[in-house]
Amino acid sequence: MSSKKTEQDLIPHIWDLVIGVVNKLIETHDLYGFGKFQEGMNPRLDVVVKTFNVVDAMLKTLAESGQLDPDEYRQVINSRQCIYHTKRLALALDSDDQDEYDNLISLLSKQAPV
Question: Cys-Cys link to 68, which of 60, 72, 99, 100 (CB 3.0-4.6 A)?
Fold first, then answer.
């Protein structure tokens, strides 16, 4: 199996996993809202962010490889954008910034197909 085939198989799988987490974030928001989001999120948001840091590093490497077709590259960029918004969501919760939190939930809701 060539490296290109592995990348083609890996990218949609990563996108599905990232969107699964984003849908979980939105579901947690719908159930618990800003005030109790951290209590309702399982796994904890800090664990999600740590995992996403690893995934983002891998996606960055793939994006910079020059080996992706336009659709693969788009999925990588969209995945990285969701990861970035998730990291910002964690920061908004840590700093008790509900306006930023609401903005990020809106952005994530628009990006994630349910």
Answer: 72
User: CA torsion 97→100→105→109, rounded to 10°?
Assistant: 180
| 19 touches 112 (CB < 8 A) | yes
This prediction has a pTM of: 0.90
Q: What is the pLDDT along the chain (114 residues), one digit of tens a residue?
A: 455 557 668 899 999 999 999 999 999 999 999 999 999 999 999 999 999 999 999 999 999 999 899 999 999 999 999 999 999 999 999 999 999 999 999 999 998 665
Select from 45, 72, 48 the least CA-distant residue to 59.
72
Q: Which long-range contacts (CB under 8 A, 24 or more apart) does 38-46 make?
A: 38/93, 45/86, 45/89, 45/90, 45/93, 46/90
Q: Per the structure block, which two tokens stand in for 45?
A: 């948001």
| Residue 104 to residue 38: CA distance in whole angstroms | 15
How many whole angstroms separate alpha carbon 82 and alpha carbon 22? 7
At 67 the three-state DSSP class reads coil
